[in-house]
């Protein structure tokens, strides 16, 4: 489930599927600290090897680069990155942002492979 809507709304929505995102599509993030669902994150790149702050010792692969990262706050890391339509489709998890306002998320496939997890699409799981 994903907590959606403005802070304190109590709207929980079941995730129906999961897949890596597609460039040029608009996705959402629901951050705990920023306090509201933000559905204006346009994916710029996928399958990216990114080194935060240019440090070659701090590189992560299978990253997503998206627009409007400046709207997210410290503490939003780990927030769901998802496609919203008639249902919710998980695409990754928010990692961080750069000073140029780009945001970064880890792709769903990397998360699933690292932790051996799947998406529960029924209640109860």
Going across the major beta sheet, what is the strand order?
A: 4-5-6-9-8-7
Counting helices, strands and paired strands, the structural category is mainly beta
Number of discrete domains: 1
Write down how many β-strands occur, each being a DSSP E stretch of 2 or more residues: 9
Number of helical segments with 4 or more residues: 1
Straight-line distance between termini: 11 Å
Element order, helices and strands? EEEEEEEEEH
Helix share, percent: under 10%
Q: β content, as a range?
A: over 45%
Secondary structure topology:
Elements: E1 2-4, E2 11-13, E3 15-18, E4 26-30, E5 37-51, E6 59-66, E7 80-84, E8 88-97, E9 103-107, H1 108-115
Parallel strand pairs: 3-8
Antiparallel strand pairs: 1-2, 4-5, 4-7, 5-6, 6-9, 7-8, 8-9
Quick overview:
Helices cover 6% and strands 46% of the residues.
What does this structure look like?
It is a single chain. This protein has a single domain, classed as Trypsin-like serine proteases (Thrombin, subunit H, Beta Barrel), CATH 2.40.10. The chain has 125 residues and is mainly beta. It is 6% helix and 46% strand. It is globular and about 45 Å long. It contains one helix and nine strands; from the N terminus they run βββββββββα. The strands form two sheets. It has a six-stranded antiparallel barrel.
